[in-house]
Amino acid sequence: MRFFKTSPHDCSYLGDREASTVFVDPAVAVPPELYEKLNLIGFRRSGGHFYRPDCRACRKCQSLRVVVQEFQPRRRHRRVLKRATHLRWQAVPVHYEERYWTLYACYIEQRHGAGDMYPPNQEDFYRFLLQQTQYGFLLEAWDGDYLVLVAVVDRFTTSLSAVYTFFDPDFADLSPGTLAILRQIEICQELDLPYLYLGYWIDSVPNMNYKADFAPAEVYRNEHWQRLIRQG
């Protein structure tokens, strides 16, 4: 395989550091079985691109996965689940619908107006989340006839990977992001899959703390997976 590495640039998470990223050659076809092997060594997917941080002076970004068969919901997780018992869940093949775009655009405009995905672009949305149909499924949550959230989920032989979740900001009191992770953990348990991958985690970035709350978890550190032990 061929890989490319970006030049150093300002890190979007740690303002005092520079970041570099390794990408799989975009011209290389990545079938699901190869994607799974890349996932096991810390790569993530963004649309049709597969990447991993490769920063010379920093190893703060670590891929994190939940050990789902040992997972026990915390009190705050149980509160989230209790508030959402009226929702109806369904898993569907990856496909495009206009209501997905409408929901995504509303989510980006109201929740990520200062982010690099603002303003939302329909073509970018499709390429980012829905163009690659071979890797997984969409997880929908409905309140009656109203679509509350959509989670893009990749499926491997031993795990699921939480790719991205977008939701109606009017339902923020349901904690949709946390709720989507809890439902994916439940699916892993139902399918007897050992792990749910949650992407990269940096212990010093507050808005990433929620990932480590889904304990027990493992991080990919020094080229192997090891149990995450948090201090304090």
- Beta-strand content bin: 25-35%
Largest beta sheet: what is the strand line-up? 8-9-10-11-12-7-13-14
What kind of sheet is the major sheet?
8 strands, mixed
Structural category is: alpha+beta
CATH class of the domain at 72-191: Alpha Beta
Between the first and last Cα atoms, what is the distance in angstroms?
A: 42 Å
User: What name is given to the CATH topology of the domain at 72-191?
Assistant: Aminopeptidase
How many helical stretches? 6
Query: In which range does the helix fraction lie?
Result: 25-40%
General shape: globular
How large is the radius of gyration? 17 Å
Overall pLDDT level? 95
Task: Kindly state the number of beta strands.
Answer: 14
CATH architecture of the domain at 72-191: 3-Layer(aba) Sandwich
- Within CATH, the superfamily of the domain at 72-191 carries the name Gcn5-related N-acetyltransferase (GNAT)
Return residue spans where pLDDT drops below 50 for at least 5 consecutive residues.
none
The SSE order reads EEEEHEEEHEHHEEEHEHEE
Family: Belongs to the R-transferase family. Bpt subfamily.
Main location: cytoplasm
GO molecular function, one term: leucyl-tRNA--protein transferase activity
EC number: 2.3.2.29
